[in-house]
Design goal:
10 strands; globular; single chain; alpha+beta; 50% strand; 161 residues
Length: 161
């Protein structure tokens, strides 16, 4: 009689263990994102910089320079959400942070979505042939819209400034 509850408890712990460890393992799959990336065709000083994973968070920032002045900036996080999943959180300029839930992750691509956000509703990062390909997409004013960004890796201390 005692064997059945113990067996059930043992099976439940084996089934639950991978689920509990999943977010940390999933975040490690994004190690390729860490580093400094220069957008192709951008002015000197434009950069996207991702710090390596630490404390269950990847931290990023971007700066766009146009005509020699910072025209926009963004602070980003990829972290564990309060619900236990993984999310991408973007704070563009002085706007409020917006969270996008991870919906797809491979060794070279991550897709995040927030269907309730005005634009974008999807954020994608992919590593393709040594380039960081970022994409935002969704509906804007009733039309499909997509913006692509292509970046090449650079040494952080050598990022144009």
């Amino acid at each position: 009689m005692l064997k059945t509850p113990l067996l059930l408890a043992a099976l439940l712990s084996v089934i639950a263990a991978p689920t509990l460890a999943e977010p940390a393992h999933e975040l490690q799959k994004l190690a390729w994102l860490a580093g400094c990336w220069v957008p192709e065709g951008s002015e000197p000083g434009s950069v996207e910089h991702w710090l390596p994973l630490a404390g269950d968070t990847l931290l990023g920032l971007s700066r766009t320079v146009k005509r020699g002045r910072t025209s926009s900036h963004e602070f980003m996080q990829i972290r564990r959400s309060a619900a236990g999943g993984i999310e991408f959180v973007a704070t563009v300029g002085e706007q409020k942070p917006v969270a996008f839930a991870l919906v797809s992750l491979s060794e070279t691509e991550a897709q995040f979505e927030n269907p309730a956000h005005d634009f974008p509703q999807r954020v994608v990062y992919a590593l393709e042939q040594g380039l960081l390909k970022a994409r935002i997409e969704g509906q804007s004013q009733g039309r499909s819209k997509r913006i692509d960004f292509s970046m090449r890796r650079t040494r952080c201390e050598a990022a144009p400034g």
